[in-house]
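Subgroup meeting minutes
Present: P.N., E.W., G.H.
Scribe: E.W.

1. P.N. recapped why we're keeping a running log of single-chain structure predictions: easier to compare across weeks, and new members can see raw inputs and outputs side by side.
2. G.H. added today's entry (225 aa).
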Amino acid sequence: MTYRLVDVSCWMDDFRFPGDEPVTVTGPFNVVTGTNPEYVYHLSTPTQAGTHVQGPRYFVADGATIDEFPLDRFEGEAVLVDMPARGVDTQLTDLLDALDGRSLRDRILLLRSGHMDEVIRTGATDLDPARRPGVSLGAAAWLAHESGVRMIAIDSVGLESRTTSNYEVNVLLCRAGVLILEGLVNLGGLGDGRLWLEAFPLKVRGVEGTPCRAVVKEEPGSGSN
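Output recorded in log:
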């Protein structure tokens, strides 16, 4: 197969959620004896630094942690949908119109808004609700219970609605076991070829999610059904 490899991950320290500790790298350190020193660094990071994938434990206290999911849940054919609206929710009718009959069953919904690229470019830290996209509770309910989607991925800081007051969209998706991939970048260059997305978490036990290296494989001109 001929495909183009597109890195859709941001640098881990490009963006930090308000209240999170920064990503820090210290070193290098040498802890071996002899005349050839090693160069080892210490990395400290929140679980939601940079581009990150998360599971039900994100908003459900007894939800599955990210290590409980099989590896094949973190890859799959992606269906690309544009979210041009900012400061308002993408409603279910908007989503269905954009899908135009394409099935999400056992696929990854890849939502493109350009928001994360803008946040990084401008250095924004206040996450202005008027600038970021969101998914309505009705659209989230359809995604969680009817669409058969395996993961929702977005080039923004999150999916939450403009109108919810207690993160109901995230809670709904987490209770349904839908994986959420946030903080993607570089989606603007993706075309109409078939897309395959891979975003594997770090092998860490007992956490809601981890940073990941997300990559899209695009098969030029193949289209998607």
